[in-house]
Input
Amino acid sequence: MAGSSASFADRYASVAAAISALMYPHAEVVLHDLATGRIAGIWNAWSGRKVGGASLLDDDTAAFDSGETVLGPYEKFGEDGRRIKSVTAVLPGTRGRAAGLLCVNLDVSRLDEAMRVLAAFVAPRTERPAVLFAQDWREQINLALHDWLRQRGVALAALTRADRVALVAALDAQGLFATRHAAQHLAGLIGASRASVYNYLADARRQR
Output
């Protein structure tokens, strides 16, 4: 911190410093003193603002007295165009009045870039070539299983017995149990025994 404006900053300095230390160098932490309308403290400053500078808040600070105690997260943009995710905590003073604001400004521009790079790596460029998968029954079962889970919005670990019977019924309808080792392969995928898969299959066929 480059300085402070009196006891207000001293009261909250350790909290602001801890947040800054945890999120360094990606977050700027700013303390605004509502009594003076000035920045009382700033950590990891990369916005160009300084201690003692004007907070540039609305003159009617009474809006902070009885409103929300946490504002955001909300989006801002830096002078260089970087995207910033911010959150503001209203700091209590005396007699129900707000004493100041603690703002955390997180630079997410690097995360945006990382997400673009990762998306470029994981996104498929074309449809799966049918000629490569027509005889690959293992891959067909893998794909059918995860398509089934995705369509129903359920996790593999959360499947009930009824879900497993329904899953096996769907795979059976696609002819995926025509291969000798299909039951063993599916058993390994869903964490069941081969005997259990055969039981699910028998139940599914009886119900059908």
